[in-house]
# Entry
Amino acid sequence: MPVTNFNHPDPYKYQTGFDSYHETEAVEGALPIGQNSPQKAPYGLYAEKLSGTAFTAPRHENKQTWVYRILPAAAHENFTVEHADSYHMRMTTETHKLHHIPNQLRWNPFDLDEKVDWVHGLHLIAGSGDPTQKQGLGILMYAAGKDMGKEAFYSADGDFLIVPQHGVLDIQTELGRIILRPNEICVIPRGVRYRVTLPDGPVRGYICELYQGHYQLPELGPIGSNCLANARDFQAPVAAFDDEEESEYKLYSKFNNTLFAARQNHTPFDIVAWHGNYYPFKYDLGRFNVIGSISFDHPDPSIFTVLTAPSDHVGTAVADFVIFPPRWLVAEGTFRPPWYHRNTMSEFMGLISGDYDAKVGGGFKPAGASLHNVMSAHGPDSGAFEGASNAELKPQKVGDGSMAFMFESAHMVGVSEWGLKTCQKVQPEYNEHSWKPLKRHFVNPNKKA
# Structure
């Protein structure tokens, strides 16, 4: 599998730039000039504001978009709980229903599921916090094999960071359309409605749902103004709408990890024009500009951060999205794989393709995952340690054909019942296979023969 999608055809149009103010209209003249909410919007459209932050949030944090649509989003019947027991059971982040354990965990590849659509193919693996308080995050797997029909879905709980591992997602959002493939990511903000169809069959992947704040580019500090993920490489959709006189739609809402549904007699995808800075976007991971040491020792893995969601404590994230793409290692006199460590952050890793260079034993596979929770010790397995300790330290390309990633969080995350037991993917001997074979190499100079 290629690690860049530069040359893949894409049927949709995009605007470029991260966190930029965009404006777009599918019909010329649909955007009002000089006024957001005129007495009569052009073409008989309704003006509506979509706010991702409080109205009074500081200007540099404020997220809002004005949309001009055929009918307001409020025009639907009452929501009622849909499949309450089964959906809530597999999605809840309620503390007493999560398993908080210090063990290192690793999962075999998660199954595809051709029987369900996007909405019903979401499963919480781990999480922390409370969406009602806008605190914390949820880590999910998705697996689906059916198109959504005349339906739309949104999460009131948080922003979805979608990381495909298998298959193509055709995502029709209110603000335009996005095609998403493995080695690309997409963020769909809280409240934005969308529908997912599957042009190439079943899909599978990972999601980090952010209950708190929004994803942003990390500060670069001494790195300077370039490298890592560049703002110009992010893509936002352009306005595209359906014009249906009478059409029955079902609208799903993920609200406090419970699934609700409502009926409406018109399409949700009727926004003819919009302007603002609150919108879905995608990014090709092949465009990430990796940096590293060119002398000795390791820079911290934070240099691989694509997106971050800061907490209230400076320098500490609710969630970081970190990738480990193909890259050159040139450091002299240095043990090159990640060092053994215990971290105050929780680390959930997934593998999109290939082999991760710090796990050579074959237990960490594409569509699988691992979790090293707060202060759980981890590092290279015994095979990786022995190989790296005795390798010739010449310039070396690692990760060819591979893409691993990490959701890192300051939260201690609990594992769901589905993630720990129901999915039946946990490797019971992960610890024993990875670190028990490590050999003692210490030679005590003070010990008599």
About this structure: The chain has a mean pLDDT of 94. The two ends are 55 Å apart (CA to CA). The domain at 288-433 is CATH 2.60.120.10 (Jelly Rolls). The CA atoms of residues 98 and 416 lie 5 Å apart.
